[in-house]
Amino acid sequence: MAILGMSAAPASLAALLVLGLGAGGASAAQLLPHRAVYDLALDQATQTDFDSIDGRIVVEITQRSCEAYELDYRFVARFLTDRELTVVDQHIELEEPVEGESLRFSSKSTVDGLGEQASAGTATTRDGRTQVDYREPDERDVDIPAAAFPIAHTRNLIDAARSGAFVYETAIFDGDAEAEKETRSTSIIASLAAPGGSQATADETAVAEERQEDGPAGKEREGTPAEDSAGARALRDHERWRVSEAYYDKTGSADGAPDFTTSYTLYDNGVSDDLTMNFDGYSLTGSMSEFTPLGAEDCKPSER
């Protein structure tokens, strides 16, 4: 998603095919530094024996200078069956300059506090290629076709939505330990209520619904954030879209099915809410329970 899809698949969870908004290059979209908490719950379990799943995502986006964004992302979930409880914990830290041409990444994940898996390094995009330099778990270099990084992907997706695009595709790299997978993202976009209260046209909504698999892209859920919350006040006058996003890699299934899909409401300042994450055999829903706008440098547009 744009950024939220990072919890269990390539991020983020996010390139009418908007070829002019590919990897790299400056975006006009401005992201709001903020901290958001999302409560997760089991939506459906069709091919698993999970009795319940609950968890939380905490996302903090900051901009300590006009040159770069920083992202701190934490995903913790409890998976309960009739025999055992399993706790998954993932922590990701990213630093990405505003021009979107480089990335510093670090991630750690554990299951029941054991077997820590780590990935860390840097990535740079230039001349149509992305060079990934890992320092963890092993020192190695990987060269892949040019890929957008998470913050740039979110900003480009907002640009695409503002331009009226229905579909946005891009290659994406979010710090995954296996850059060789060459992950790609396809997003289906439907406009929701605009600041003046107008809705997406019937044609726009119909096209979006035909092109996505996990429910009407134009349908907005109720209740998050609460109408009297800081989140509601900060987001009330912002344009927003329903996005359904699918992630693929070149080693994926033979039938072309995505490795992971997610849908969410995306605001024009980069905040996301009302998410659904679809995994193999089960899906999770998430709603914003806390929202705090954070201070930012007073950067001129040319500096962002």
UniProtKB/TrEMBL annotation:
Do you know which Pfam families this protein is assigned to?
EipB_like (PF08904)
Q: Which InterPro entries match?
A: EipB-like
- State the coiled-coil residue ranges: none
User: Looking at the record's lineage, which domain of life comes first?
Assistant: Bacteria
The answer to whether the entry has keyword Signal is yes
Q: Which UniProt keywords apply?
A: Signal
Signal sequence coordinates: 1-28
Q: Where is this region: Disordered?
A: 190-236
In which residue ranges is the amino acid composition biased (Basic and acidic residues)? 208-224
Signal among keywords: yes
Q: What is this protein called?
A: DUF1849 family protein
Native organism: Fulvimarina endophytica
